[in-house]
Amino acid sequence: MKEFKKYNDCRRVRKRKSQEKHTKLGHPWRVDESTLRALMDDATNPVRDKPLGVQIRTNNIPLTKRALEHNLRTRIHAGVYKQAYTKKEISLDNKYLRVGYGYVNQWQPIFGFWDAVYWTDEAHFNPEEDFQKPSILRYEGKRLKTNNIGVRKPVKSSPLTLHMYATVNWYYKGPLGFYNDDVDMLTLPKPLQRPRKYKYETQQKYKERLTEWELKCPPAIEGDVGGHHMTQEYYTEHILPSYIDAVQQARIGATIEQREWLLQEDNDPSHGTKSFNNVSRKLKDVNWIRTLLHPGQSPDLNPQEGTIWDGTKQHLKEILVQEWAMITLTEIRRLISKMPSRCKQLATNGGEAIRSEHW
């Protein structure tokens, strides 16, 4: 009993002295806090987007991977998270167009303008993409900070990629369609390897072999290839009619007053928005379809981009259809109602990308 009392007395003394020194009982940390915070800075830690093992070896941290994770989490509230990314830097020309778009449309009313726009989009979902997303060491809650956002790298193509399209409006949500059938999509033939000239081969024989190679090469496919190998002909025949039909139904609808409806399309080459003499433009002109000028590299100006399509490898189409059905008009209207404020931001931020938690 005396030994126990003596032990408690010693412990109280040590605790009191540690409080006076503003320290804690126990072994000291092997790495001080300044070293941990230095790992959060690109200037002192150029491998912040690499695995923790690489960062430990590069910065000579005397900790194991598990110990470093514990130190980061408990002491400075940091860790390795999936990196937020943007596709690529917005070009200067598109920034000018985005600023002009903001100035022109920042005062447009929700009812009378934005509710008359039919927003269209074609999305490409790759279930393997989540495994290819890079990670980065950062503080908790700082995902959208500028130095934590990377440039999106090209993702490896996959036969599991799904190609989807749909259109939404303030009063309407169209069905989710798929166009990932390989039979319907444009396939580019793989060119034969160009022959190389042998060391002791005459120029005449090399030209003969070169001519023979050119004859064996597959013919070039005509048409502007873009949007994951989608031509204007394919877009005009399979996808655009559904968009036009939605606008036509709105025109003949008895519940909504007569007005001029607009169709929004991005600047994908298959949409035919960059010229006037193409099959896509002709079909829209025949049906009296007016389009809303949309600047390039602007997914943040399309409310449909704010919707999230999720799914898994198994029964992916069915899951995506269910997820699409769960999106309500209330959510769509909430995103459309943000367009005036987004246009105001464009008019003041020099055309930079607009980022938020949900869009």
TrEMBL record:
Biased composition (Basic residues): 12-25
Region ranges (Disordered): 1-25
A single MF term (Gene Ontology): nucleic acid binding
Biased composition (Basic and acidic residues): 1-11
InterPro entries, per database record: RNaseH_sf
Name of the protein in its database record: Tc1-like transposase DDE domain-containing protein
Annotated source species: Bimuria novae-zelandiae CBS 107.79
